[in-house]
Amino acid sequence: MASSALTASGISGKKNEEIAELIDYFSKCQYRAKEVNPKVEQIEKRCLELFGRNYKYSIIQNTNGEVCGHYPRQIVFLEYESLEHDKDRYESTLQVSKLQDLVNRSKMARCRGRFVCPVILYNGKHICRSSTLAGWGELYGRTGYNYIFSGGSDDAWAETDEFPDDDDSVRNGDSQLFDKVRGHDIKLLRYLSVRYICDLMVENKKVKFGLNVTSSEKVDKAQRYADFTLLSIPYPGCEFFKDYKDRDYTAEGLIFNWNQDYVDAPLFIPASLSKNLNIDWSEYQSWDLVRQTQNYLKLLIHLINCDDESGLLVHCISGWDRTPLFISLLRLSLWADGVIHSTLEPAEILYLTIAYDWFLFGHMLPDRLGKGEEIFFFCFNFLKHITSDQFSCIRKQRRKNSQFRESDFTVEDICQLKRRDRGSTTSLSSDFSLITEDSPAGAANFSYEGVELTSAGGQTQAAWRKGRTSSPQTLLLNKPHQPEERLFHLGLSEGKSSSSSSSNQSENSFMRAGSSPLAVPGRRCPPVPERQARLEAVREVFLAAYSATVGLKSASPSSSGAITGLLEQFARGVGLRGTNMIV
Fold first, then answer.
1. Which H, E and C letters describe 346-387, residue by residue?
2. Where is this region: Disordered (predicted)?
3. Per residue in 531-570, pLDDT tens?
4. How many Cβ atoms are within 10 Å of 513's Cβ, its own excluded?
């Protein structure tokens, strides 16, 4: 457990400590519904408490993993927001008993029994997750297993009128079985009012040892899913994130190899859904990991906004790597806009999405860390790339971006620059090119339990409880000028030559505060937009907790010091300091 080490090292902030303990436990223990202990029960209870802050919910029972062994034992079905006006507007008409029955019947249809599960409620619409469709090998294997161990009967196939025969007079056994199990799956999708199905697989079917072990809606031969809007948005699997880690956690310029033999699923998005996004989808194979993730997230947000009644399903193969990545980004993005989980603080929404979307839905973090496949870390480090209004679900009139020379900026212009504009847009250290050095008045004293948010449009302020400090920019820019304080820029090496490193070192050398336009006495910068401040607060709590528990392992020794110094700055910043060194 991390608690003793973290407490001994002087943790401040109960919620930050809670995040660190969660990540520490998650990194060492694999969740399975049949193998629970008091710690898992504590995590489950905390998740229910956080959901209950804003929602009336019911429970889909999965006691001891009877429905799915790597889904939560108590699956939360959000019915409506607990505010009275939201209840009147979006009160659920679904019956949890009917939903439980459909879940029990449909579980065979999908890989590993990971059925379609609603996890986010947005404007009365359900955002769901699952695995892909099971192939004939898994389907026959699991139905045979169930038949043998149920005494020769399987209640899942009790009904005989599930799916009418088509006009063919002769139907083989495969088709009849698929009609039945996929018929249950389709009924569940319809009951949840799901219209859009987003498939993240880079394959049409997953093949192992020459056998098709999974399928997908897009290649269903009988076109059973033709009434749904199917989107094929291929996204690299968790193995690709080994490359991300080996590049010192740098996603910029990291492009997936689409020419591999097993990659056979092209991107497909109906023109009616893609035309308003101003994205050239034909170029998707040239996108790096940052741009690809950004564009896919924009698409998902567009889908849940373009239809007032229909829900969304996101899935990959097993539904425990790529799927939680996008579900977590969606949850955090919508929260940052203030449209879901509206009363949760940054540390609370972070706890909820790590514990529920990742841990309790079976992400195998210990295995992924052992292999260096750091998709989990990528998710929360990526928040720096979705802070702008481009990713907001709230429809606004946005200004067109313009390109300026650095010399054209005034002090006020520079103050308004997002962090990504001050350095590399994707390296781990890029967003922290301006942070305070370790000093009593600097980073060591601020707590992200108390970030004050000021909306850019009006002068409305939303203060998180116990708040007396602001976001990093406001903290830095609004402090009285101190002659002894210095600002510095951390650069992360990407395997460059020693001469190049020397050049970077000189370019990113320490600067006196007085020499920085940001440090002009008496000048105050405009407040950070609320969405940006919220996401930055979540990310910084995560980085501090991750640093204090798991740590990062640099592929190149020259980068290790930069990573270590960077994350230790954040550990001190939110009051976390663990014993795990970053190596």
1. HHHHHHHHHHHHHHCCCCCHHHHHHHCCCHHHHHHHHHHHCC
2. 459-480, 493-526
3. 999 999 999 999 999 999 999 877 665 555 555 555 555 5
4. 20
Residue 332: CA atoms inside 13 Å, Cβ hemisphere, count?
Answer: 36
Q: What is the mean pLDDT of residues 423-445?
A: 36
Residue 250 has pLDDT above 90, yes or no: yes
Structure tokens at 513: 């505060």
Distance between CA atoms of residues 426 and 290, nearest Å: 7
Euclidean distance between CA atoms 480 and 499, whole angstroms:
38
Q: Which residues have a catalytic role annotated?
A: 316
Asked if 452 contacts 470 with a C-beta cutoff of 8 angstroms, the reply is yes
DSSP 8-state secondary structure symbol assigned to residue 78: E
Cβ contact 216:135 at 8 Å: no
**Which helix or strand (DSSP H or E) is residue 572 part of?**
helix 557-573
Residue 518 in contact with residue 487, Cβ under 8 Å? yes
pTM of the model: 0.73
The residues, ordered by sequence, that sit 6+ positions from 460 with a Cβ below 8 Å of its Cβ are 454
Classify 314 as helix, strand or coil.
strand
CB-CB neighbours of 159 under 10 Å: 12
How many residues are present in the chain? 583
Tokens representing residue 360 in the block? 């309790």
CA distance linking residue 579 with residue 553, whole number of Å? 15
Task: With beta carbons less than 8 A apart as the criterion, state whether 436 and 476 touch.
Answer: yes
**Residue 50 vs residues 136, 203, 390: alpha-carbon distances, Å:** 40, 37, 28
Distance of CA 305 to CAs 349, 496, 547, Å? 22, 44, 36
Question: Cα dist. 6→134, 426, 556 in Å?
Answer: 44, 29, 28
570 versus 234: the higher-pLDDT residue is 234
pLDDT tens-digit series, residues 170-194: 345 567 888 898 999 999 999 999 9
